[in-house]
């Protein structure tokens, strides 16, 4: 879910309660996380930005290697070597709930009426050049955008979703696209929504153009590695989304 406090709705200094899964702001005296720990005796919290664990209300950091699986699920990372071998292995992974799945071939939750967007996102997640680019955050983390520009949020959220889809250590064999879709609603100025159906091909066209612009592209589509990746995507993905094509 979106990383904001369930009480203050703030994005600043948010902690996840590892007992009930709710998000709370702060960990100091009288903070929402502190009060939650006292009232419900829930004591272990994860800072969603620093990925550090704390015990509340005593307010000390917990250092325990057994918690690393949780931080990896929240923020999976991929090495260049791992990415290079993704298409050469078909090893099933076992989720924490006991189900098996193939990384990259996992379901996206249907929140309300977002299946049209899910189909596009899943198709794009299996286009190797695009997948490889977004699995390695270093490729775009330092791109400079104008102050107040919100479109780069699409890039960040799509990268996060891509890494979760290809995570070999997921807790479940499905992934929530909630944060990604919230970015779509915001950046498209509600032209594409979660609550009503949209056209998959229209969403694909808008999404690729928005990614291209957010990554520093221009309407002239000057030649670049990123531009070449985008150039062949529409022709490759649109047939997969056409209702006249068999699945």
Automatic annotation (TrEMBL):
Predominant location: nucleus
Localization terms from the record: Nucleus
Keyword set includes Membrane: no
EC class (word): hydrolase
Classification via Gene3D superfamilies: Cysteine proteinases (3.90.70.10), Zinc/RING finger domain, C3HC4 (zinc finger) (3.30.40.10)
GO CC annotation terms, alphabetical: spliceosomal complex
Keyword Nucleus: yes
Annotated keywords: Hydrolase, Metal-binding, mRNA processing, mRNA splicing, Nucleus, Spliceosome, Ubl conjugation pathway, Zinc, Zinc-finger
Domain of life, source organism: Eukaryota
Molecular functions per Gene Ontology: cysteine-type deubiquitinase activity; zinc ion binding
Domain USP: 106-247
GO biological process: mRNA processing; protein deubiquitination; RNA splicing
Domain UBP-type positions: 1-81
Annotated EC: 3.4.19.12
Catalytic reaction(s) noted: Thiol-dependent hydrolysis of ester, thioester, amide, peptide and isopeptide bonds formed by the C-terminal Gly of ubiquitin (a 76-residue protein attached to proteins as an intracellular targeting signal)
Family from the record: Belongs to the peptidase C19 family.
Name listed for the protein in its UniProt record: ubiquitinyl hydrolase 1
Gene: Usp39_0
């Amino acid at each position: 879910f979106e990383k904001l406090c369930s009480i203050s709705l703030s994005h600043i200094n948010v902690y996840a309660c590892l007992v009930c899964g709710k998000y709370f702001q702060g960990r100091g005296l009288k903070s929402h996380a502190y009060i939650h720990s006292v009232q419900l005796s829930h004591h272990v919290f994860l800072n969603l930005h620093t990925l550090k664990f704390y015990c509340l209300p005593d307010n000390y950091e917990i250092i325990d290697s057994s918690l690393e699986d949780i931080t990896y699920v929240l923020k999976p990372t991929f090495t260049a070597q791992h990415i290079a071998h993704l298409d050469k292995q078909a090893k099933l992974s076992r989720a924490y709930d006991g189900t098996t799945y193939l990384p990259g071939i996992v379901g996206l939750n249907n929140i309300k009426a977002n299946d049209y967007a899910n189909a596009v996102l899943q198709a794009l997640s299996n286009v190797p050049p695009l997948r490889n680019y977004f699995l390695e955050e270093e490729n775009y983390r330092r791109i400079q955008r104008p102050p107040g520009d919100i479109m780069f949020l699409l890039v960040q959220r799509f990268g996060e979703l891509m890494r979760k889809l290809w995570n070999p250590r997921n807790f479940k064999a499905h992934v929530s696209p909630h944060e990604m879709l919230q970015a779509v609603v915001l950046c498209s100025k509600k032209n594409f929504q979660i609550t009503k159906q949209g056209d998959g091909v229209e969403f694909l066209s808008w999404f690729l153009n928005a990614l291209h612009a957010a990554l520093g592209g221009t309407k002239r589509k000057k030649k670049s590695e990123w531009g070449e990746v985008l150039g062949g995507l529409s022709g490759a993905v649109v047939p997969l989304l056409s209702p006249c094509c068999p699945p």
